[in-house]
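Input record, target 12 of the design panel.
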């Protein structure tokens, strides 16, 4: 009996101590619960297309560098007991961590996640991963997606197939940076349209495989051109101006419009400052370099290359436009007109 009495007394002594411990821990548990609910609300808002201004988990670096901060009540729940909100928040958390590991800053991650409200974060991560695998750095990827957010709407399989095709063209290992910056449409274009441009460069213009790769790298806008117009531009450069394949690649000739090329070339030709090389590639006068014709402003072209005034050039451009309009109506081609002009010059010579 005496022993039983001592146990009862000890039990009564434990009651206040036990409840004291519970009371001391209750505020901490309540605070943890409120923190978890707040985090879930922010993650759910962001994944559902809401603003990311309140998404504190993307802000400080401590969130990425301290894994213990990610341990919360949601992660302790069994898979079957997790709600859809829990799963979305965990998926978003993993995507944020992966983007940070790739080298994206917190600000860039926030912007990327807000580009397509309502889109699944995992799809964003998959698309960005494909660009990174092509040799691109985080900043060019961000710039391309900001310039063309429709890239995020593409099926991931289309991105994978196009990436594989670009590698075959030699546009991997960092060479895609300029292409993606100038012409992000390379991922949204029809495969048939790209094939048509590549076929013209290889079969019609007879560029080598290496030269085609350099053209697409240096002059990505050729991908958006009409195949027939691209072939005409090449023929004009090769036959009328006497420019060889390697020079076209080095000078990035194909990036300029046909209108600009013809205006400046024909103007120099009529001023007697440019001659079409003969079959041996020779001319009676030294022709200006292509960079001094096309890669300079109009004012510099007139002052240094043409040695003419802006007023004279404006009058010439209007006359040239009228001549081309008349030739189109009569069906006379540039080559035929050039031949006629040569015959007239030969007749005038004594």
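The sequence produced for target 12 reads:
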């Amino acid at each position: 009996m005496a022993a039983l009495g001592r146990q009862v007394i000890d039990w009564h002594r434990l009651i206040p101590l036990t409840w004291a411990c519970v009371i001391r821990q209750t505020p901490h548990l309540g605070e943890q619960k409120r923190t978890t609910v707040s985090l879930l609300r922010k993650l759910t808002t962001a994944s559902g297309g809401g603003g990311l201004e309140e998404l504190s988990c993307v802000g400080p670096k401590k969130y990425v560098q301290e894994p213990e901060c990610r341990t919360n009540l949601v992660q302790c729940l069994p898979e079957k007991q997790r709600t859809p909100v829990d799963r979305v928040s965990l998926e978003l958390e993993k995507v944020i961590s992966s983007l940070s590991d790739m080298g994206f800053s917190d600000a860039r991650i926030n912007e990327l996640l807000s580009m397509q409200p309502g889109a699944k974060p995992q799809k964003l991560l998959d698309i960005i991963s494909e660009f990174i695998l092509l040799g691109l750095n985080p900043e060019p990827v961000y710039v391309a997606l900001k310039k063309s957010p429709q890239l995020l709407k593409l099926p991931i399989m289309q991105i994978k197939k196009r990436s594989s095709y670009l590698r075959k063209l030699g546009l991997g290992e960092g060479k895609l940076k300029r292409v993606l910056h100038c012409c992000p449409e390379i991922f949204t274009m029809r495969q048939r349209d790209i094939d048509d441009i590549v076929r013209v460069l290889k079969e019609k213009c007879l560029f080598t495989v290496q030269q085609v790769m350099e053209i697409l790298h240096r002059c990505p806008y050729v991908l958006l051109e009409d195949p027939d117009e691209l072939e005409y531009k090449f023929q004009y450069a090769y036959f009328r101006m006497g420019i060889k394949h390697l020079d076209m690649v080095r000078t990035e000739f194909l990036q300029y419009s046909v209108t600009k090329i013809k205006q400046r070339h024909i103007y120099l030709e009529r001023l007697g400052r440019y001659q079409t090389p003969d079959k041996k590639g020779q001319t009676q006068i030294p022709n200006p370099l292509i960079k001094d014709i096309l890669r300079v402003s109009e004012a510099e072209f007139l002052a240094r290359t043409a040695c003419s005034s802006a007023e004279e050039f404006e009058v010439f451009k209007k006359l040239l436009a009228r001549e081309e309009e008349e030739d189109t109506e009569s069906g006379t081609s540039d080559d035929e007109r050039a031949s006629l002009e040569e015959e007239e010059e030969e007749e005038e010579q004594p």
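The CA atoms of residues 19 and 25 lie 10 Å apart.
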